[in-house]
Amino acid sequence: MATTADFRNGLCIEFNGDLWIIVEFQHVKPGKGPAFVRTKLKNAKTGRVIPNTFTSGVKINIQRIERRPYQYLYKESTTYHFMNTETFEQIFLDEGLITAPDLLKEGEMVTVVYHADTESPMECEMSPYVTLEVTYTEPGEKGNTATNTFKDATMETGATVKVPLFINIGDKIKVDTRTHEYSERVKE
To answer: Which terminus of the chain is more solvent-facing, meaning fewer CB atoms within 10 Å of its CB: N or C?
Structure first.
């Protein structure tokens, strides 16, 4: 058993019968009363984030999680097929476990987070940025680079992303997988 002194970002704990990942925490020592730890916990299954306060020194049950590299193969209905790059074993994940399924293209490398005790997948993490090609967007006009206006662009994966006016069909752009926002144009 561990205590609140062992808290760190990314630590997986068992709390109220579920697995929670610590997103952020803060030790607070008020002038009056006992010290406590303010946390934001993310549910490992649903992704819901809740605030919670622990009394300092309370016992917690730390859960072991493992991160394994996988390669995305293809999608079948709402099931995504991945292959372990070390053992070549294939797994099938539901769309709800993937951070940004609409930005996932075939051959992309991801990290699958496993609960070590039960060997069950908890989450599929993508890299923070992916490079995608624009397959359709309205034509841009010359000289429209100074304004801060955006237009819709359809990516090679079928996702729609807001891009600046100077982006054209065939351009490759970096997209933030956490926010689905345009980051920059990729030069070849």
So the answer is: C
Q: Both 109 and 140 in a single domain?
A: no
* 38 and 77 in a common domain: no
> Are the C-beta atoms of residues 83 and 73 closer than 8 Å to each other?
yes
Whether residues 113 and 134 fall in one domain: no
How many CB atoms within 10 Å of residue 43? 16
Task: Report pTM.
Answer: 0.74
pLDDT (tens digit per residue) in 109-149: 999 988 888 888 888 889 999 999 999 998 866 665 666 78
The owner of tokens 């662009």 is 153
161 near 133, Cβ under 8 Å? Answer: no
Range of the domain at 133: 129-185
Q: What backbone torsions phi and psi does residue 56 show, to the nearest 5 degrees?
A: -60, 135
The structural domain count of the chain equals 3
